[in-house]
Amino acid sequence: MGCMRKRGKSWNAQVRVSGWRTFTKSFKTKLSATEWVANFEKELRSKPIPKKDIKNLKLKNLFNKYKLEILPKLKSYKIVSYKLINLSRLWLGDIVVINLTKRYLEQFCEDRKLKVQEGTVKSELMLIKRIFKIAIDKWNYGIPFDAFSGHEIPSSHKPRNRRASKEKSTTLIFNTEKQKNKYISIIIQFAVETSMRRSKILKLTWNYINLETRIASLYDNKNGDDGHIPLTKTAIKLLSDLTQSSEFVFPISANCLRLAWERCRYKSNIKGLRFHDLRHEAVSKFF
Which 8-state DSSP code applies to residue 28? Predict the structure, then answer.
């Protein structure tokens, strides 16, 4: 049942439904309070009674449960796990779940925009929203308030269109060829010829390379589909010059490639160019 009482210049509304915790909210008018009590009580009675008491559950506890139970089944385990650890360390992680409001989310966005891009903020918000949905639908937690309702989600990252000039590209390749690891230069040239992601290049095995048909097959892609990449004459030449000493075409670690890329970029005096930008270069060359 619900009740209302006037406190100063505002009306305090309270809703109590068996099986749920007590909910309270303040309004400027009695009419607004009355409408909220009626609608919210009806909403609670239409939902299944929560099986678990989450009175003292904090957001970081919810993040951890998602990380342990749901995340291991996803391909993006490592990346999302890192995001959850970071979110848990922020002040938002200490907010009690049932106390989360739209205002907390607005403040979170304001704080995060001072440190990261809007696209990152959007990604973090959508992750929290997805965890809340699972908590309600799958774990049957009593979270009746939708803090995300009416909250404006930040825009995504602006698409990058970064390309290195022909002169700088030549300098970059020159510096990669001076690396002790022979695979660095070949990988970068191979990326420009195929438009493949760094992770897929490093996972590529000889079993999925057909030099006769000039096709590289990709399995378990980011979108869940399989793919086949046509190989240019230059890509075929790069692969033909390699010795098949391992099942992997390029038997080096992601960290080794990352550090080598940063060294070559620094020596070439190219600022802000990412390995991922080689895909833009590849697509431009295709056209």
Answer: S
pLDDT at 278 over 80: no
Length of the chain: 287
Q: Listing from the earlier edge strand, what are the strands of the sheet with 209-210?
A: 209-210, 215-218, 227-230
272 SS3 class: coil
Tokens at 90, concatenated: 């922020």
pLDDT digits (tens, 9 = 90+) for 85-110: 999 999 999 998 888 888 889 899 99
Q: Do 47 and 144 meet the contact criterion of CB atoms below 8 Å apart?
A: yes
On whether the CB atoms of residues 10 and 26 are closer than 8 A, the answer is yes
Query: At 153, phi and psi to the nearest 5?
Result: -80, 130
* Ordered alpha helix ranges (H), 114-197: 118-137, 166-177, 183-194
Say which residue the tokens 């195929």 belong to. Answer: 194
- Nearest CA to 47 among 71, 72, 73, 19? 19
| Phi/psi-derived region of residue 230, left when phi > 0, alpha when psi is between -120 and 50, beta in every other case | beta
